[in-house]
Write a structure and sequence with these properties.
This protein is an all-alpha fold. The chain has 26 helices and no strands.
């Protein structure tokens, strides 16, 4: 009786104490994310000459027409991209959620692959495909159009390319919610007389809205800090705040104004999170949240009215169309739509591969002949090989450091009953909701004071901040699916805690840990923004070298380097994705 009482009394203490395993990760983020961001805010309020406090930088940002136009461009383009991503990705995620498990996994791999392929590589591919000698211009000429329209350097192309990059993120965010919905709910609606259209609008759509809202939040915040796409595919009229920040730091040497623009981006991101929290609760992004708050929300009640109207309107349209087509329901349309979207997502990745084997001195698709010349030049170039080796080294170090911090943190939060768990979770997710260019500027100011500019260590620290939430979420999801009763059973049989962890816990979660390690490496390997600022022009990673080459000169050598990135990303991505289900199946 006393042993039982002691055990029961100790259990809550173990849960509370487990939160301290997250302290190293929290201290790391506080040192290299929170404090640098506060320091950047302080710089933005300082006069560069006198050191006095002033709002001059903000008055310039919000009062000078050229910068107000840039800010307006940024928010308007981000909003357009967000709306397009939600409209395109929702049917895709809905189709994926209805597939058998094996087929869903294969198709999800194709959707996710573009997400993990460097944005620089994808936008460079569009630069070639949409150019005057690209496949689209060639197709139009073959159809008799003598002067094909210029498809590059306009707002439509910028929005298209940004949407292309963000659709996988939106689809995955929605899919994670849709796969958790109980299909018996829509079946029950059908047994009560609701048509398939009415069941979708009245039952399925409202239940999937947290996924839609999470996708919208992530896409909008991610779009705010974009600079690669408008820089490569846009004109000066499409300049966004990310480009302006880079220009202020690298060309104008004006850290005060760059900090003010970065602070405005942070304010926009935090405002977006605040709106999301008021409607859904930020914990809904992790699968929690208060259903009561959602039910009381006026926006939710308004949404239910819209869903009811949609059920009526689209139900009537569906029945009318079915009568016109003799009862045919166009069941092929959704799979055809999804296949088309997936094909467009992977198109730039597949198109780059044959261009790397061209025999020409210029890039075109399709290539005029086959040659290994550009891969040979890539392997023989000390600049490119040094950048590649550095990317692998920094990526490996980033993956190891990230996984140590993320694993301890995820273990602590998954076993903790402390009230601080939610706050700790939100801090680990903060790098996702702060534009990466803002993080890079904040770290640039900090590292300039401590001598870490143009060092591999400085780049690695920035990459760890960037990779932390990805690895943390993967490990946390793995631990939440782990059956802790197996560990308790081993302990009751006399196994010590280290032995339980080594012989029981570790084998069951190993797949998730390896997947987190690989994704942390990939996050570092394809990251450009941190290397652009912290590298100082002296420490060049592979993405940074590709950026310099595409700005200064465009040659098939760049395509060969892009194919190297694609091969590395694809291989590791597939390995990671196929490791995660094994861990899940074993745990269950």
């Amino acid at each position: 009786m006393s042993a039982t009482t002691v055990t029961a009394g100790m259990a809550p203490r173990r849960r509370r104490d487990a939160i301290w395993l997250a302290v190293p990760g929290l201290l790391f983020l506080a040192a290299f994310l929170v404090l640098p961001s506060l320091g950047m805010l302080s710089v933005s309020l300082t006069d560069d000459d006198t050191g006095a406090w002033t709002f001059d930088a903000y008055r310039r940002a919000l009062g000078v027409p050229v910068y107000t136009r840039i800010i307006s461009n940024t928010f308007w383009i981000a909003l357009q991209v967000t709306v397009l991503c939600l409209l395109i990705a929702y049917p895709l995620a809905y189709w994926l959620a209805r597939l058998p498990a094996r087929t869903q996994r294969i198709m999800a791999l194709l959707v996710l692959l573009p997400l993990w392929t460097s944005a620089l590589v994808k936008n460079f591919a569009w630069l070639v495909l949409l150019g005057r000698t690209g496949i689209f211009a060639g197709t139009l000429r073959a159809l008799g159009v003598e002067a094909p329209p210029d498809l590059l350097f306009n707002r439509v192309t910028v929005i298209f390319a940004m949407t292309h990059s963000m659709v996988p993120l939106a689809a995955v965010s929605m899919l994670s919610v849709m796969t958790q919905l109980d299909p018996r709910l829509t079946q029950a609606a059908g047994t009560l007389g609701a048509s398939r259209v009415a069941a979708f609008w009245r039952v399925y759509l409202p239940l999937s809205m947290p996924g839609v809202a999470s996708a919208g939040l992530l896409v909008f915040i991610g779009s705010l800090g974009y600079f690669i796409t408008p820089a490569l595919l846009g004109s000066p009229r499409e300049t966004m705040m990310g480009q302006a920040i880079i220009n202020q730091v690298q060309q104008m040497d004006n850290l005060v104004f760059a900090s003010a623009l970065s602070a405005l981006l942070i304010a926009a991101a935090l405002a977006s999170c605040l709106v999301y929290d008021r409607i859904f609760g930020l914990s809904r992004m992790s699968g929690g949240g208060s259903q009561a708050r959602a039910a009381r929300s006026p926006i939710r009640r308004g949404g239910l009215l819209v869903a009811r109207a949609g059920a009526t309107v689209f139900g009537a349209l569906s029945e009318t169309l079915a009568r016109l087509l003799g009862g045919h329901r166009l069941g092929w349309f959704l799979p055809a739509y999804a296949a088309t979207v997936v094909a467009v997502l992977v198109l730039p990745i597949l198109a780059l591969v044959p261009m790397a084997f061209t025999s020409s001195d210029f890039m075109s698709f399709p290539p005029p002949g086959f040659s290994l010349r550009w891969f040979q030049e890539y392997a023989a170039s000390p600049v490119w090989t040094a950048a590649t080796v550095r990317s692998f080294g920094i990526g490996a170090a980033t993956a190891c450091v990230t996984m140590v911090l993320a694993t301890f943190a995820a273990f602590g939060l998954s076993r903790s009953g402390s009230r601080l768990t939610t706050a700790a979770f939100l801090l680990f997710m903060t790098p996702l909701v702060i534009p990466s260019i803002v993080v890079a500027v904040a770290l640039f100011q900090l590292f300039a004071m401590v001598g870490l500019i143009a060092t591999d260590l400085g780049i690695m620290i920035g990459h760890v901040v960037h990779a932390m939430p990805i690895a943390f979420v993967i490990v946390l999801a793995t631990l939440k699916s782990h059956d802790w009763r197996l560990d308790q059973a081993a302990a009751t049989l006399g196994a010590s805690r280290p032995r339980v962890f080594r012989r029981v816990t570790m084998p069951l979660i190993r797949g998730g840990l390896v997947a987190g390690l690989i994704f942390a490496f990939l996050s570092s390997f394809e990251e450009l923004t941190v290397a652009l600022f912290i590298g100082g022009g002296l420490r060049t990673t592979l993405p940074k070298q590709m950026w310099d080459d595409v700005i200064l000169q465009v040659s098939p050598l760049l395509v060969a380097a892009s194919v190297v990135v694609i091969v590395v990303v694809t291989t590791l991505f597939i390995v990671a994705e196929f490791l995660r289900p094994r861990a899940s199946r074993t745990a269950h």
